[in-house]
Amino acid sequence: MINYNPKEWFTFIFRIHRADTVRKLAPMFLGLSVYAGIIGILELEVFNLRRYTELQQLTIVHSLLGFVISLLLVFRTNTAYDRWWEGRKQWGALVNNSRNLALKLQAILPVGDDATRAYFRNMIPNYAFCLKNHLRNSFEPQELEAVPGFTPQPGQHVPNQVAAQMLGRIHELYRQQQLSGDQLITINQELQSFTDICGACERIKNTPIPFSYSVFLKKFIFFYVMTLPISYVFSVGYLIIPMVVFIFYVLASMELIAEEIEDPFGKDANDLPTDTICENIRKHVAELI
């Protein structure tokens, strides 16, 4: 995730970040410039189509379609941002639940039971790291703290393995009468919340925008921009070249930004800072237990 000062907005105009859509769309800018120039030469110089007023009236169609495409893009970006923000709320809940579980265990566990405290001091952050990598379809065992008796299996659902290990350890403490029934119920709520958060994040990741909607919007943008020079070249001349490039930049950038943030758990520049969140969970749990 990019850290920046929102008050220094003027510098953003002249700064091209690696995540900026200008870099991604630069080849399209060149192609559209050539295309618009060719259309201008053909209509103004070769075929001299100024006498056909019907072509000039096509600007009315673009005005109407411009309103429609703006509504579609607003809906697209709002939907993508909702997914990004929902992911951030789930990871915020994971932070809070990890702290709450650590606080309760520190208060409930018998004095002198250092082995159990060390177990949960490592396993609670391990869940966050496993969830992060699970959502990225990767497995990074070097990020996990070693815990006796626990070896994650990469071919399976690793967050579930960690949750099952912690739940089993809690019930073992209950059978040893180190936890009361009320304390077991209280701690069980925190452990259950881990799986609920995992399921919510999987729902965001595994349910993309419907294919037909995404394809339709891309085709709409493409044909809208490609037909602009046909009518507007009569009123603006060869200024249609920068005009088409700028309009495409605005419309395509909105779509690219939406595509990037609709899956907020990856490693893109605008994705959630899950690496930092995991490190903070490890730091705070170590302070509490």
Shape: elongated
Count every beta strand, where a strand is a DSSP E run of 2 or more residues.
Answer: 0
Rg from Cα: 27 Å
- First-residue to last-residue Cα separation: 29 Å
**Element-level helix/strand string:** HHHHHHHHHH
Into which percent range does the helicity of residues fall?
over 70%
Total of helices = 10
How much of the sequence lies in strands comes to: under 5%
The assembly state of the depicted protein chains is single chain
> Structural class from helices and strands?
mainly alpha
* Overall residue-averaged pLDDT value: 90
Major beta sheet summary: none
> Low-confidence segments, ≥5 residues, pLDDT <50?
none
Please, could you describe this protein's structure?
74% of the residues lie in helices and 0% in strands. The chain has 10 helices and no strands. The radius of gyration is 27 Å and the shape is elongated. The two termini are 29 Å apart.
